[in-house]
Amino acid sequence: MSEQLAGIGRQLEELLDQRYTIALGAGQRALRDASTAPEPNSRAAELTRARDLFREAAAAASAKSPLQIAVAERYVALCSLSAGRPDAVPAALSALNDAAFRALTEALPLFGPKAYEKARNQLPRSSRLGLRGRREERIDELGSDLVDAVDGVVDLSLNLLAESEALARGLGQDLGPETDVDLLLPAGYEDDERLARTAQVVVRPTAPGPLRFGPLTVAFGEIKPAPGRPSPAAPEQPGAAAVVAAKLAQAQLRPSEYEMPARPPGFEVEVLVRSDFPVSPTLIVSLRPGLVLADEVPLEVWPGQPAFTGVASDMLAARMQETRLSYFHPDKFVNEWTVNINNVLIFQSSDRQLLDLEGGAR
Question: Which residues lie closer than 8 Å to 107 by C-beta, 6 or more apart?
């Protein structure tokens, strides 16, 4: 029964993929016919037909392939615009952003060492592979093929997101200042070597204001002086029963409800990370001082608590569209900050975004 169910599942996927391919190809043909139509009525009819076919392709796209959905929605947006229906474009662009961003965040972690881990897990242990050195060669080959495939997904996702932004701005949507988006390739990629680091997408500002990339917006707040906090007064020595009761009460509190510990004077910054739609899977969002590129697991601390080392971290989870992070830095004024999302999406601030404290405050 399990084999039959698996077979049915494969047939269904093949059927859906076939429907997608046929509908996308027919829509592209209708779009070409519209571009050569001799008179307006036939051109409008072909554009409407093309848009319906691309909608069908988006509906038939496999849920496992968000890139298929993004490509189909791109054509829906272009057909709607060409047919004189700019009111229908934002919905298609929203679906495009959702799918392309999901494809990007799923692909980027495999643009590095994880590709070879995946290849190692997929490669069966067989005597036909011979010596251990031959097995490692096959892992390198399969891992390199996977990295190349992921590179194509990442490039297409970034291009789709860039097109979506350009089209939205052309339609007059207020997306804030433009951003500089750069894909940082890990060392050794050009030489087809085994990668030791993961590729990262870095988003930098070109003007003051929030940073926007796809569905995400990162707004850096101003840096504010934070006064020091003295140590809590030591309580009088209580009896044994009072000590037990106090420990039980403390055990039932969440960490955020503990009495705030002492800290020296310093500076605080708050950053808002927002998504246009609930994200899935969960994104780990961390905030750290300086303009940092990182490929390590961040040290998580409770947001709003003193963080002398490590980062202030939180999650942007499904059904949740924004999170606020605050970071306290003792003594030293820092006017550049980095928001790190899953160690692959890097949002960097600049002096022009953050209020520079002058005089005695600094």
Answer: 150, 153, 154, 157
